[in-house]
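Rather than argue in generalities, we have chosen a single entry, letters for residues, whole numbers for local backbone shapes, without further comment.
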Amino acid sequence: MSLPELLAEALGDESVVAEVPLGGEDVLVVTPTRTVVYRADGLLSDESTASYAHEVERLSMTTGRRKAKLTLEYGLDGTKKLAVPVTRVDAVLHPMMAGILSAVGVTDSGEAVKKTFRFSDLTLVITSHRLVKHIGSAVWSTEYEAFRYGDLTNLDFEEGNVATTVVLTHNGRQERLKAPNDEARAVREALTAAVCAFHDVENLAELRSLFGDETADDRGDVDRFDFGDGPDPLSAQPTADSDAQTATISTETGDSESTAEGMGVETDVDTVAGANSVADSTGGSETVSTPSTGAQSGSSATAAPDAVDGNAALAERLDELTAAVEHQEQELARQADLIETLIEELRRGR
């Protein structure tokens, strides 16, 4: 895929490590030293590019209903903010974290970042040579811990009802951390594959045999960190003012859709119920008051088709109203997307 001319000029001779579409023609690219975002022509401004260096002191993230905001802090050089669709934040965060870890000297040259996980206040980055852990509201800061696979003698996983505990035996001590069960398998597979590849073994049993740790009787648990029942999934933290405004407008639109749908359904249900009640009561009065004669049978035979025809007409009307409500929902959704686009462009200064 060829890059837009303006973006190619901004990159110069730098190599592109990752490329993430952000919707429309907007795209984010990651190089070894920085992240560059390209914004195509919009409703309020021309195309543009913005650059974010990877040598940061802190990386924070807040998520809203539609947008996620990444805040990069550079100490005395200030901060920069980057907004991306919430559906693309994982695809953006992984290569950015790889660039940051390399730029600040956590990972070595040629060390590959395999997987990035974010569980509420816990960030895990699995590389080809180490596991990096950060605890706190920020995704990344200088308050991190790294566990080199060269110092790792055992790896185990303890399943629970809510979370799975990852147990690292590292330099004769144990480090315990928890991953929610819906992500535990991905963590287990990625970490096991990286550790086994580093030690050139086929599985964890061979790893334990290699270090003489086939049993776990004398591990000497040191529970340095425990999430209790496990961390929550990716947190929906409070957004900044602009994201809050976007979320408010989107919520109001959603309420309008719900109200329109609710009014249509309630009206139709009441109409059908009333009509059926009238039909039932009419049929019942004829049966009680009229003797069991041929004339009565003929009257009942006449009434039944009328009731069927009435119900068929009501069902047809219900289908028409349902189609009208669905059309209104589509229009409201389209208008909500347009408002979202306008707000986002205004927030970016377009």
